[in-house]
Specification:
61% of the residues lie in helices and 3% in strands. It is mainly α and 351 residues long. The chain is globular.
Length: 351
């Protein structure tokens, strides 16, 4: 028979193959092995003592969906009205120009993320600003937080403008038409749980649904623009080029239409196999999706109503089941877009 000893080897056993068993504190073990225990996960450190985080697990598809959903916000319904102050040619030129400038800015931010934070996956506006000019890093974070808070507040207003009329068209009444109650219920039932997710990648399903919603709305408006029998009482005139004071006042609609820079670092931190070609593909696909969608909705709405188009183009259309469905879907689009503003605001405040 074999004999197994219950004795554990001690530090005194100093043979060539003898295990070394020494009582060490977690800090001492970290210094020796470059690893430390944090909860149930082992945290590894590089040669400079920086924590090495797990590589991102987000796919390119989910990254494109989240960035595209960040782009396609509530302002999409105001583009036909902005075209009324610029015309077909100038309005389209604005959309293309600001798409290019936004793409270039996203490329620069992604390049910093890949070059400086590909290993640690801790890219943020604060870290980048601190490396560029340390004294102004806090200002950048405050600006991002305030901007995202303002957009989130605007989203709630849009929900209150779109959802009650859609419910009324469906035959609902009473509390279902209470603007504040509707907003409050959506906040607690949908928005709050989504805002508590740990990673931006967790919003990939709602972002995919949002892209489907805006695609449906684009098809509906395009279909109505081709309907020659559409009963429109407030049809105005259209122009190829318009340049006046209204052009300048509506310019921010074109500029902020591509605002998504606040989430580019979260996307790069979560992306699996982070490389510059993959980030460029995500940026290019997302911006192109926004540009095509904007052109379809802006031209369709402006073509039908001309300079009589309202700030919310859906308010121009007669009562129709497709328009009611579009209102519901755009309400959900804005609802699902709220957490995409909450994430960068939360990161900026906590950093």
């Amino acid at each position: 028979g074999s004999y197994e000893s219950n004795e554990q080897p001690s530090a005194k056993d100093d043979g060539p193959g003898a295990p070394l068993m020494i009582n060490m504190s977690p800090d001492e073990m970290e210094n020796l092995t470059g690893e430390s225990k944090e909860g149930d996960q082992m945290v590894r450190f590089d040669d400079h003592g920086n924590a090495i985080k797990e590589p991102g697990q987000a796919s390119m598809f989910s990254s494109i969906m989240n960035l595209s959903n960040t782009i396609l916000g509530a302002g999409i319904l105001g583009l036909p009205h902005a075209f009324a102050s610029s015309g077909y040619v100038l309005g389209s030129a604005f959309l293309v120009f600001f798409a290019c400038t936004s793409t270039f800015g996203l490329h620069l931010l992604a390049d910093v993320s890949v070059r400086r934070h590909a290993v640690t996956r801790d890219a943020s506006f604060y870290n980048v600003a601190q490396a560029a000019f340390s004294k102004g890093a806090l200002v950048i974070d405050v600006a991002v937080a305030i901007k995202c808070f303002g957009v989130s507040t605007a989203y709630l207003i849009v929900i209150g403008d779109l959802l009650p009329p859609a419910m009324k068209a469906m035959g609902l009444s009473g509390l279902a038409l209470d603007r504040r109650l509707v907003i409050t219920i959506l906040q607690f039932a949908i928005i709050a749980p989504l805002c508590t997710l740990r990673r931006l990648d967790g919003l990939r399903f709602t972002s995919t649904m949002s892209i489907l919603f805006v695609t449906f709305t684009s098809i509906v408006l395009l279909t109505f623009s081709a309907d020659k029998d559409l009963d429109v009482s407030d049809r105005g005139s259209t122009e190829h080029v318009v340049f006046n004071y209204g052009t300048l006042t509506n310019l921010p609609v074109f500029i902020f239409g591509y605002t998504c820079q606040q989430n580019i670092f979260s996307i790069s931190n979560d992306l699996k196999h982070l490389t510059m070609p993959r980030m460029n593909a995500i940026i290019g696909t997302s911006i192109s999706t926004g540009l095509i969608t904007y052109l379809v909705i802006a031209i369709s709405g402006y073509y039908v109503f001309g300079d009589a188009v309202k700030a919310n183009v859906l308010n121009n259309y007669p009562s129709h089941p497709l328009i009611t469905t579009a209102r519901l879907m755009m309400s959900l689009l804005v609802t699902f877009g709220y957490p995409l503003q909450c994430f960068p605001s939360r990161y900026s405040i906590l950093s």
